[in-house]
Design brief:
This protein is mainly α. It contains seven helices and no strands. The chain has two domains: about 55 residues, no CATH class; about 45 residues, no CATH class. The two termini are about 30 Å apart.
């Protein structure tokens, strides 16, 4: 999803600079990773744990809930979650069980 929401070329708004700065990943590295993803390289081989931590909520249902709580404490009132992988329906159900 990074390639969908991030600019190409020199189109890099100030907000994106701030997000990258807060991620702790150097801008040239983010730009290089985006280029690799846009060339069709798989996210699994291109993104390391730093990108996952900075730009995703990932892990077990319990881990995801704990990560989402950080956003709540920061003032976020709503999150849109997507579930990747081979069994998104089962993962959503498991997350809902933990949420209850």
């Amino acid at each position: 999803m990074l390639t969908t929401f991030w600019p190409t070329g020199d189109d890099w708004p100030a907000l994106r600079d701030t997000i990258v700065e807060c991620s702790g990943i150097a801008k040239p590295e983010v730009v290089a990773v985006l280029a690799r993803l846009r060339r069709g390289e798989l996210a699994e081989t291109v993104l390391d744990e730093r990108f996952i931590a900075a730009f995703a909520i990932a892990g077990t249902a319990e881990e995801c809930l704990a990560q989402a709580a950080k956003y709540r404490r920061a003032g976020v009132a709503e999150l849109a979650l997507t579930f990747g992988g081979p069994q998104p329906e089962a993962d959503m159900a498991q997350f809902a069980d933990v949420l209850r």
